[in-house]
Design a protein that fits this description.
The chain is of the alpha+beta class and about 260 residues long. Helices cover about 50% and strands about 15% of the residues. The protein contains 8 helices and 6 strands. It has helices at about 5-20, 20-25, 35-60, 65-75, 80-120, 135-145, 150-160, 245-250, and strands at about 165-170, 175-185, 195-205, 215-220, 230, 235-240. A hairpin with a 6-residue loop joins strand 3 and strand 4 (about 215-220).
Length: about 260
């Protein structure tokens, strides 16, 4: 009978991991036995909460006997004590799964409330949020802690959030300057930013020997055309913020190292 509690324990833990925004976006980190242990850990907590809730209800409402009522209604076996055990198992299982759902959806509500409070408090935004972009901004607020853990992910994230230009170098030598318009969200198996969508401002290439950047394409007059480019993360070798004035000032400005004197 005790072994059967493993089933609701794992189910409630898995529900929490897949429905809770914080845990779902980190599922790609858990594989194999680690995923089972994570589900079992959170499931155990849900089962303990269900058992604790049963004790509290029994103490507060002495005339409330759902287990006995279920045992009489179902009659799994001819022995009363076995019927009560099965009824306890059903009640604990259903309650633990309900706690997993409640925990996950309460977290979603908390994220929404935090987002609304941040939105209301930030009345002096330089760029007002369009109503249709609110769901996207809400999702970004949930993703923010995960994205800021990696420097390159943080760069892409801030580019998309603040509409700032970045410079991206691909393994083929191609160079793009633009604003990130979309990032691939993490899922059960893949980490975030496995692919980005970039709205280019200009593009060019790096010289194969000197690695100096040469810009040859300007997209400034193509605002009415969808020029978004989807770039796999695996093809990106370098990325950085880009300021055209700073680039012009620094580009080819170094006179070369001094030759050491022979002495």
């Amino acid at each position: 009978m005790i072994a059967l509690l493993i089933v609701p324990l794992l189910i409630s833990g898995f529900i929490l991991l897949t429905k809770h925004p914080f845990h779902f976006y980190r599922l790609h980190r858990y594989t194999g036995q680690l995923l089972y242990m994570k589900a079992a850990g959170y499931g155990f907590f849900c089962v303990m909460c269900a058992a604790f809730l049963a004790v509290i209800l029994k103490a507060l409402f002495t005339d409330f006997h759902p287990v006995m009522a279920l045992a009489k209604w179902t009659s799994f076996t001819k022995e009363d004590h076995l019927n009560r055990m099965w009824s306890w198992f059903i009640c604990i299982s259903v309650t633990s799964i309900a706690i997993g759902y409640l925990w996950a959806y309460t977290a979603k509500v908390i994220y929404v409330v935090k987002f609304i409070k941040a939105l209301v408090s930030d009345l002096n935004r330089k760029q007002a949020i369009v109503p249709k972009d609110i769901p996207k901004q809400l999702k970004l607020s949930v993703l923010a802690p995960l994205m800021l853990e990696s420097p390159m992910n943080a760069l892409f994230f801030h580019s998309m959030l603040y509409k700032k230009s970045i410079l991206v170098t691909l393994d083929c030598g191609k160079v793009y300057v633009g604003v990130v318009s979309r990032i691939a969200e993490p899922n059960e198996t893949d980490a975030p930013t496995q692919e980005i969508s970039l709205t280019p401002v200009m593009s060019g290439y790096r010289h194969k020997d000197t690695k100096r950047i040469y810009f040859i394409n300007d997209y400034a007059n193509l605002a009415h055309v969808d020029t978004n480019i989807n770039i796999p993360r695996s093809n990106i070798t370098h990325s950085s913020w880009f300021n055209e004035d700073v680039h012009k000032q620094v580009d080819d400005s170094f006179v070369g190292p001094r030759q050491p004197s022979d002495s």
